[in-house]
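User: Let's play a game. I give you a shape written as tokens, and you guess the letters that built it. Ready? Here's round one.
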């Protein structure tokens, strides 16, 4: 999908054409429409399917930037196509890169064409969670008690970094090969978690912090004595190949972007837990009104 709507130019040729369009010899073929601060007006934010913290942050920035005059489009996609698209300017930015573990493979592959705008949350953690009254407290004990969980471990998207870590590290290290590892989507996992909670049944799911599920469900993280899920990570914003050139002001805003987990939980809860609507615009507007001082600081 074409990301930018470029102004048409006259084919005048040579230096005259460059002067009329404002281009340089090494620049684009036409001048993009800009907002008052000089940034390109059209912005495409890539959003990982099912990653609620990224959805929340992206919806927040969409609302903030549209107030500044930007035209913002959120495009939902799986993880791998996002990084490929960033490297070719099909997307402008993604706000949900977990480092140094979960998405490191993609940064190794595409990082030379991307720009790291820094971490806005430092509390990200991959987990395996169970109901709080489950008969185990550690991944080391899960295999021996697999029957209590109907021999099922419920995962999320097959292309996710969490799935890769679970498949390549957690399952073989803790001998969970005898359990059925079910992958589909984050909404499907949450539906399974809801059903098990309502039925007062044991359940084991792949999850992560920060996530609103920790406020919505009586669950606990299983201990990871071998450290297969890694330490806490940072959630980074990554710009695409031409991001700094096209969005110098926004680049600075995102470099200064910080959001602690409690604040993020409150936004996620408002969007995904306290309201049934998937029309996030009015919900985010109300959250902004309730947190106006913080929101104003994002572009100060």
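Assistant: Ready! My guess for every position:
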């Amino acid at each position: 999908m074409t990301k930018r709507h470029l102004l048409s130019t006259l084919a005048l040729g040579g230096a005259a054409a460059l002067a009329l369009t404002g281009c340089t010899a090494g620049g684009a073929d036409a001048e993009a429409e800009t907002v008052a601060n000089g940034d390109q007006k059209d912005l495409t934010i890539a959003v990982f399917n099912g990653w609620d913290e990224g959805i929340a942050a992206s919806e927040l920035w969409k609302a903030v930037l549209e107030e500044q005059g930007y035209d913002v489009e959120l495009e939902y996609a799986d993880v791998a196509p996002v990084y490929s698209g960033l490297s070719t300017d099909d997307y402008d930015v993604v706000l949900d890169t977990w480092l140094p573990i979960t998405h490191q493979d993609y940064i190794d592959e595409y990082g030379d064409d991307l720009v790291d705008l820094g971490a806005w949350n430092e509390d990200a953690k991959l987990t395996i969670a169970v109901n709080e009254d489950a008969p185990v407290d550690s991944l080391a004990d899960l295999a021996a008690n697999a029957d209590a969980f109907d021999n099922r471990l419920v995962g999320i998207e097959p292309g996710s970094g969490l799935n890769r870590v679970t498949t390549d590290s957690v399952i073989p290290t803790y001998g969970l090969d005898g359990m059925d590892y079910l992958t589909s989507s984050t909404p499907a996992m949450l539906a399974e978690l809801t059903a098990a909670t309502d039925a007062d049944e044991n359940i084991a799911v792949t999850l992560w912090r920060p996530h609103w599920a920790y406020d919505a469900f009586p669950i606990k993280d299983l201990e990871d004595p071998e450290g297969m899920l890694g330490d806490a990570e940072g959630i980074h914003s990554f710009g695409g190949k031409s991001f700094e050139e096209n969005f110098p002001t926004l680049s600075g805003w995102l470099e200064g972007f910080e959001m602690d987990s409690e604040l993020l939980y409150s936004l996620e809860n408002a969007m995904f837990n306290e309201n049934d609507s998937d029309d996030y615009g009015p919900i985010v507007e109300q959250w902004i009104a309730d947190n106006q001082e913080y929101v104003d600081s994002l572009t100060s």
